[in-house]
Amino acid sequence: MSLTGLFLCFFLLNHLYTNLLLYAPLFNPEDAGSSFNKASHEMVTSILVRTVEIVLFASIIFHVVQAIRLTLANRKARPVGYESGSKAKAGWISKNMGLTGSIILFFLIVHLYNFFLPYRITGEVGGDSGITLAKQVTLALANPVYSGLYVIGTLLMGMHLSHGLQSAFQTIGLNNKKYETILKAVGNGYAVLVTVGFISFPIMFYFNILGIADKIQ
Questions:
Q1: Mean pLDDT within 95-116
Q2: What are the residue ranges spanned by the domains of the chain?
């Protein structure tokens, strides 16, 4: 579960980089979303990326299945919870990884429905459809319900990542007193970076800050 989680963390950085290309029109008015569309198209046509994509979906499924299996195993091992005031205390995030993970999974399904399905499966976006993928982003983020869900999903993802990364480091044997502070800083820093990066999209596009939505075609 830790290895699939670390792989998903790596994917998020790549996904964030691609999404940041949506801001290219702010620096080059002639771009109009072409950099983002080109990068997305290259990912679709690249055999390497398509292979990684298969591994990605397999990792997501395995990560979810393992989470359910471990949760059931933990409940079976301790059917009665710790008493209030027990020394075995844990923060809200660590105690609710299943909850945050479930909401993130729901958001991921909605996200795939809005972008992966029309772009990769039905052909309603991209190609000769007349609607570019970049334009589809602006249309989706103009919806207050989707933008609100995006913000909530991103915030919970940040919390999930912060604890998940530190747990992964511990699971694979990297966590010890010597590196504990550094690894904790890496986990929190990564979570903040990804959260701030992704949460900027619904804010920038929904409120059309700097007229970014108007620049996308």
A1: 88
A2: 2-77+95-215
